[in-house]
Amino acid sequence: MSLFKRDPFRFVAPVYDLLVRWFLPVQRVREHLALPTEGRLLDAGGGTGRVAGALRTHARDVVVLDYSMPMLSQAVHGKGIKGVQGEVEHLPFVSEAFTRVVIVDAFHHFRDHSLAAEELWRVLAPGGRLVIEEPNVDRWYVKPLAWLEGVLFGSRFYAPAHMAEMFRRLGANVRVDASGRLNAWIIVDK
To answer: Which domain holds residue 86?
Structure first.
């Protein structure tokens, strides 16, 4: 495995927020997460913390988890959020630790999606909500970009219905919002 595939974000961490600044669906995230919450919020695969930073006043405690230490160092720098290095497939948190979990444009980067779903479900508190935003590969014009990212980064994209099914198998109440042009939202309630 090349270093680039192992942690491709180490090279873009310093400029990542500039590269994606045009895309920050904060209002949709807030709506789908039913914020504010009195509990804790986890931004899993949260990279530089751009989403978590925008949500930090909407939860008691906001934590960003990411595999890439260079990305995570950008997350905690001046954004008022906590950072934890780790993999979503092996979350370093006790069960039922978070009332809200969000994943924005990162699910396709996880190594084992079924195990990640199990871990996310485990740390979600009863009555909690998990929201995943991902490129919608059911759209023909998203497929070439997903294919290219798969070749370059080893990313694996799933159709919204397939992601929803991963959580339904765990006993979740799931709905899909595929109304966006490029992205779909998977809303998981425990």
So the answer is: 3-136+185-189
Q: Tokens 């090279």 identify what position?
A: 11
Q: Is 6 helix (H, G, I), strand (E, B) or coil?
A: helix
The burial class, CB within 10 Å (0-12 / 13-18 / 19+), for 129 is buried
Domain count, the chain: 1
Asked, for residue 147, whether it belongs to a domain, the answer is no
**What is the spatial distance between Cα 169 and Cα 46, in angstroms, rounded to a whole number?**
25
The CATH number linked to 16 is 3.40.50.150
Convert the pLDDT of each residue in 84-133 to its tens digit: 999 999 999 999 999 999 999 899 989 999 999 999 999 999 999 999 99
Containing H/E element for 106? none
Query: Rounded to two decimals, what is the model's pTM?
Result: 0.87
CA distance 96 to 104: 21
Omega prior to 92 cis, within 30 of 0: no
Identify the bridge partners of residue 82 per DSSP, sorted by sequence position.
63
Spatial contact of 104 and 55, defined as CB atoms under 8 Å apart: no
